[in-house]
UniProtKB/TrEMBL annotation:
Signal peptide residue numbers: none
Protein name: N-acetyltransferase domain-containing protein
Record Gene3D superfamilies: 3.40.630.30
Any one GO molecular function term: acyltransferase activity, transferring groups other than amino-acyl groups
């Protein structure tokens, strides 16, 4: 898959690579990041496994993981991915997203999603972008709806968590004909952050 670098005013998304490991691991240390994510990083070994899994999936063209760099500091502040990439079906999922808690409720997530959606719809010409999250993760659900995504429904007992429990997964999507209004919505949010 081609090299993708996505740059905004606040963040730059670079393809995940082994050279990013130390910054990636440092950003992943706050334990509250992992409350609702299926794969968790609680140790250096977990971070190595997480990164290796992402790089393997990228080689197989199933996933395209990024590190999120804060433009002002040059520091890695999180990670996000294109997942379940299906060019034949003109679809993919944006997921495996996490940020250092100091960046929660800032422009970071909005700009990351703007950049990812813009590339998927305008460069790759895809027709459907999906988001999935734990039914109990109210913060993530609210953030996805805030983007302008449509809630499609619930997949019951869809995924086993590391503690052995099964999660219900909420599914959302944005279609290509909805992108212009979503793009304007995100542009407006980002403009408000600049004031």
């Amino acid at each position: 898959m081609e090299y993708i670098e996505l740059t905004g005013k606040t963040v730059t998304l670079l393809p995940l690579s082994e050279e990013h490991f130390e910054g990636f691991y440092e950003a992943s240390k706050p334990i509250e990041i992992w409350d609702w994510l299926v794969t968790k990083i609680y140790s250096r070994e977990d971070a190595v496994a997480y990164m290796n899994q992402g790089l393997r999936a990228k080689e197989e063209e199933e996933q395209y993981p990024f590190v999120v760099i804060e433009n002002g500091t040059g520091k890695i502040i999180g990670s996000t991915s294109y997942r379940n990439i299906q060019f034949d079906n003109e679809s993919l999922e944006i997921g495996s997203t996490w940020y250092h808690p100091s960046k929660w409720r800032t422009a970071v997530n909005t700009e990351c999603k703007y950049l990812l959606l813009q590339h998927a719809f305008e460069t790759w010409k895809l027709g459907r972008i999906e988001f999935r999250t734990d039914e109990q993760n109210t913060r993530s659900r609210a953030a996805i709806l805030r983007l302008g995504a449509v809630e499609e429904g619930k997949l019951r007992r869809e995924k086993r968590l590391t503690d052995g429990t099964m999660r219900n997964t909420m599914v959302y999507s944005i279609l290509n004909d909805e992108w212009p209004s979503v793009k304007q919505r995100l542009h407006d949010f980002l403009s408000q952050h600049e004031k």
